[in-house]
Amino acid sequence: MHIVDGALAPEVLIGGGVLAVAGLGLGLRKLPIDKIPATGVLSATFFVASLIHVPVGPSSVHLIMSGLAGLVLGWTAFPALFVGLLLQAVFFGFGGLTVLGVNTVNIAFPAVLAGLLFRGMVSRSNPVTAAVLGGCAGAFSIGLTTVFVAVSLALSGDAFVPAAKLVFFAHIPIMVVEGLVSAASVYLIAKVKPALLQAADQTSGFEMQPTATLRAKQAGEASNG
Amino acid sequence: MARSLKLVVVVGMLVFGATPAQAHKVIASLFPSGSNIEGEIGFSNGVMAENTVVEIFDLDGNKIDEVTTDGDGFFVYTPSQQIDLRFRADLGAGHVAEATFAIADLTGVDGTVQTAPSKARTASGVGSNAGPAITREQEEIIATIVRDELRPLRRELTAYKEKNDLQSILGGIGYIFGAFGIIYYIAARRLRAKAPNA
Q1: Does domain A10-224 have CATH number 1.10.1760.20?
Q2: pTM of structure
Q3: CA dihedral defined by A5, A8, A13, A16, rounded to 10 degrees?
Q4: Which residues between 36 and 75 in chain B have a beta carbon less than 8 angstroms from any beta carbon of chain A?
């Protein structure tokens, strides 16, 4: 999941960086102020989940929890997962700094898509159905991430189909475990705080005001003071 | 917020029996071994890179040679030139192992003092203070024994360096909450700037 430094061509790194910045900008613009704590918690969840080792047969897998982040946060999953990836790269040498953009896009964009696809249905369902849909969102997000990883590698010169197969099949156990954990999490959220799964309203603490308005306001403040 | 925290705890509990560890970070370690370079390539979860081609470059990026790891991700390479080397192995799925070796670390390069009339010059790294009572062959045997004894220790040291302790993970969580606290602060300031003055 985490591509490391030195595996990709410079063009792919730059492209990933540009897309990641665009996603981050969009995510921050769409971040309503009351969702910031949830964003922080999901960012921390992702950070810890990727560091926890679950033994599966001879190997081991780690969760990613990107589907859940996408369901709850939508586009804001970009900044949430970016922060987690940045700290993993800095603290644990997990992934890397030059591939940060590509890794962010590979993990966050599928999360956003999972959110767009499933959030409407999840927010209208009863907790059990929501849990099943949440599980699908979790597995879908991981599956799509494997395709994105394969595309990144293919653009850097690997053959696409074998790379995609290799990454996809290696991650089937993770998709299953991730689906189950996402389902459990969505069930819990639907029970205790269903508002988290509603689509966020689009008013944001980050939308810039037109400068004219700002000037008028400052002038008003000056005359009031 | 408290409920969100509860959620995190539940998620943590669901992953029963899991220990904080690093999954799937590539580790490449190189060690001097007489006049050879020994290396090990694998993942931090203990899976070694079996039968993987390791390409060897000089520091300018020109390919010099390649070797293949055995079933334990282990390889031995005898450098033909006295230059620093970079080893690179592609383990697929975006995992690339890279490590650089300074040729000066090799104890068996020219400069060791010969202590006895040698047959074939296969250099060893024990040095000359053992006195003339010990032959070159014996020196090599001792050096080999010492290397074999040290190998598990080296592996353990590598594994220890890769260990994630709870402290770093908690530190990371702290950074994340701090970062979102700052975002919250900025957002709140902007919101107040927009709000009509009381």
Answers
A1: yes
A2: 0.68
A3: -110
A4: 45, 47
